[in-house]
Amino acid sequence: MRLFLAIQLSPAVREALLTAQADLRRQGRGSFPPPENLHLTLAFLGETADLPGARAALNAAACRPFTLAVGGPPGHFGDLWWAGVRGDPALEDLALSLQADLRARGFRLEDRPFRPHITLVRRWRGEAPQVTVPHASMVVRRISLLRSDLTDGKRIYTELSNKSLR
Ligand code: 2AM
Q1: Into how many domains does the chain fold?
Q2: Are 57 and 50 within 8 A, CB to CB?
Q3: What is the residue range of the motif HXTX 2 (predicted)?
Q4: Domain range enclosing 74
Q5: Mean pLDDT of all residues belonging to the chain
Q6: Is 135 a catalytic residue?
C-alpha cells in the first residue's frame, strides 16, 4: 500500500485553498485535487507493507501543537502549483524528525529537501496564474497516517491512524 504522513487541514484553511482553486480554474486548466484531498505532506513513504513501522513512527512523533498559516501568491514545481505555508519552525522540525525516524526504521524515503506545500493543481495548463491565496491559519494538534488508493481513476486518501500533539 501507498502511505504518507500528513497534516489534515482545518475548515478555514481549506476554505482559503478552495478560493484559490476557484480563481485558478478561471485562468487555466489542470487536475485539481478535490477538497477532501487537500493536505500537507510531512513524509511520503511510498509503496510499503510495513504498516506497523509507519504507525510506530507516527506514534513516536514528539512535537507541541503549532500554528500553520497560508496566504499570498502560490508557488510551483514545474506544472504543479501549490500554496506555501508560513509560520512555525516546529513544522520543519516535525517533518525532519519524522523522516529521520522513518529512515531509522528502514523506510526508503526520497532525498529531496522538505519543501512544505499544499498542492492546488497538477498538470497546470495556462499562463502563470494571477492568484492570491487568502490568509488563514490553524493550530495543528494532530498528524495523520494516510493510505492513498487509486480507485476507478480517483485518488482516495484514507486515514489509518492519527496522533495528537501535546
Ligand atoms: P504532491 O502533492 O506535491 O504531489 C500523496 O501522494 C502525497 O505525498 C502528495 O501530497 C504528494 O505530494 C506527496 N509526495 C511526496 N513525494 C511523493 C512522490 N515521490 N510520489 C507521490 N507523492 C509524493
Answers
A1: 1
A2: no
A3: 117-120
A4: 2-164
A5: 97
A6: no
Which residue is closest in CA terms to ligand 1's atom 18?
A: 44
Distance 87 CA to ligand 1 centre (A): 22
| pTM assigned to the model | 0.95
Ligand 1 pocket check for 144: Cβ under 6 Å: no
The mean pLDDT value for 46-67 works out to: 97
Q: How far is the CA of 44 from the centre of ligand 1 (A)?
A: 6
User: Which CATH number covers residue 96?
Assistant: 3.90.1140.10
Catalytic-residue membership of 39 = yes
| Burial class for 149, CB neighbours closer than 10 Å (0-12, 13-18, 19+) | exposed
Q: Is the ipTM of this complex over 0.90?
A: no
Burial of 98 (0-12, 13-18, 19+ CB in 10 A): buried
